[in-house]
Amino acid sequence: MRLNDEIALNIGAGEVLVGVEILDAKEVLGSGQLPQVVLENIPFQVVSTAA
User: Fold this and answer.
1) pTM above 0.85, yes or no
2) 2 vs 14, 33, 47, CA distance in Å?
């Protein structure tokens, strides 16, 4: 699912957010230090993969 031309969300089984992609990150974020990214109002669940 694309939020806009630069950001895509990866949705997995059960409509669970499994990843956030920043497309053309160098152009979007520029060079140097990465900015702080804050995700708000995105429901999530913690899934343990420990055996």
Assistant:
1) no
2) 18, 25, 24
Question: In this predicted model, what pLDDT tens digit does every residue of 12-48 receive, in sequence order?
Answer: 888 888 888 888 777 766 666 666 777 777 776 666 6
Give how far the C-alpha of residue 7 lies from the chain's centroid of Cα atoms, to the nearest Å.
8
Structure-block tokens of residue 22: 């920043």
CA geometry: angle at 6 spanning 47 and 36, to 5°? 60
Every domain of the chain and the residues it spans: 1-42
* Three-state secondary structure of the chain: CECCCCEEEEECHHHCEEEEEECCHHHHHCCCCCCCCCCCCCCCCCCCCCC
